[in-house]
UniProtKB/TrEMBL annotation:
Pfam families: FAD_binding_6 (PF00970), NAD_binding_1 (PF00175)
UniProt-recorded name of the protein: ferredoxin--NADP(+) reductase
EC number(s) recorded for this UniProt protein: 1.18.1.2
Source organism phylogeny: Bacteria, Pseudomonadati, Pseudomonadota, Alphaproteobacteria, Sphingomonadales
SUPFAM superfamilies: Ferredoxin reductase-like, C-terminal NADP-linked domain, Riboflavin synthase domain-like
Length: 277
C-alpha cells in the first residue's frame, strides 16, 4: 500500500491546523482534465491579496503531521472569491500523488504570502504581451488574462499553450471563447486576446514548438495575427512551463536583445525563478 493509499483511507481523520505562515482552506471543486492533469479551487481568506501571476505555497499534512508544501501559481483572477490551481498528477510524487485525490470538503494548507515574478510590474511598457507556456505553466496566465489592467497596458495579449496531447489543453473552451463569459474583461478580451494552442505529439491544427515558431517567425501568423515580427521595441514576454522550454526560449530572446526583468528591475521578459532555479 502506498503512502497515498494510506492517507486516502484515513483522510476523514486528518484535521489541519493553521500556523502563522499557513491558513487552512476547504476544497470547493475538483476538475480532472485527463489522467495527467487536474485543477481545483479552494476557499479564499478575506485577508488574502495577490497580484495576477503570483504563486503561493499550498499543501497537505505530511508524515508526522508536518506540512508538505509546494509552490503553485494562482490560476484565478485577483478579484475572484475562490482560489484556483492547475496541477499535474505524479503517481509517486510526495504531494501530487495525494493532492490528485482531494475532493470537495477536504482541507488544504494555503500560504499567507503570495509572491512571484510573472507580474506586469516586472515588465517595461510595450504594445504586445506574449504569454508563452507549456503544460501547467498556463496557470499564472489564466489569472493575468482576466486582469483588466493587462488590457489597459497592452494593445494585444497572446496566450500560447504548448502540450503533448490535445486533452492536455486545460481551459481550452474558455480561452477559445475569448473569455466572453468573464464579468470584468469579456469586452477587452474579445478584442485584444488571442489564443494559440499547439500540440506536439498528435495531429492538431498547430503542431509547432514555441521555439520553432520564434525562430522561423511564424508565431504571430499561427496566432491569426498580422503585423511586425517579434521585436524588443514592441513586445513583452512571460515564460512559464518546462525547464527545457524556458531555457531554450530565454536563449533565443537573449540573442535578440531582450533583457530579463524582475520586480526590482523591470525588463523585456520574465520567467519564474522560483520554479526553474
Amino acid at each position: 500500500m502506498t503512502a497515498a493509499d494510506r492517507f486516502a483511507i484515513h483522510r476523514d481523520k486528518i484535521e489541519l491546523t493553521a500556523t502563522g505562515a499557513l491558513s487552512v482552506e476547504t476544497v470547493l471543486n475538483v476538475r480532472h482534465w485527463n489522467d495527467r492533469l487536474f485543477s481545483f479551487s479552494v476557499t479564499r481568506p478575506a485577508s488574502f491579496r495577490f497580484r495576477s501571476g503570483e504563486f503561493v505555497m499550498i499543501g497537505l499534512a505530511g508524515e508526522g503531521g508536518k506540512p508538505l508544501l509546494r509552490a503553485y501559481s494562482v490560476a484565478s483572477p485577483a478579484y475572484a472569491e475562490e482560489l484556483e490551481f492547475l496541477s499535474i498528477k505524479v503517481e509517486d510524487g510526495p504531494l501530487t500523488s495525494r493532492l490528485q485525490n482531494i475532493r470537495p470538503g477536504d482541507q488544504i494548507y494555503l500560504g499567507r504570502k503570495p509572491t512571484g515574478t510573472l507580474v506586469t510590474d516586472a515588465l517595461l511598457p510595450g504594445n504586445r504581451l506574449l504569454l508563452l507556456s507549456s503544460g501547467t505553466g498556463l496557470a499564472p496566465f489564466l489569472s493575468l488574462i482576466r486582469d483588466p489592467d493587462v488590457y489597459e497596458r497592452y494593445d494585444r495579449v497572446i496566450v500560447v499553450h504548448s502540450v503533448r496531447q490535445a486533452s492536455d489543453l486545460a481551459f481550452r473552451a474558455e480561452l477559445e471563447s475569448g473569455l466572453r463569459d468573464d464579468p470584468l474583461v469579456s469586452e477587452p478580451a474579445m478584442a485584444q486576446l488571442s489564443y494559440l494552442p499547439t500540440v506536439t505529439r498528435e495531429a492538431f491544427t498547430c503542431n509547432a514548438r514555441i521555439t520553432t515558431m520564434i525562430e522561423d517567425g511564424s508565431l504571430f501568423a499561427q496566432a491569426g495575427l498580422s503585423g511586425a515580427p517579434l521585436s524588443v521595441q514592441t513586445d513583452r514576454i512571460m515564460l512559464c512551463g518546462g525547464l527545457a522550454m524556458i531555457k531554450d526560449i530565454a536563449h533565443l530572446l537573449d540573442a535578440r536583445g531582450f533583457i530579463e526583468g524582475s520586480n526590482a528591475k523591470p525588463g523585456d521578459y520574465v520567467i519564474e525563478r522560483a520554479f526553474v532555479g
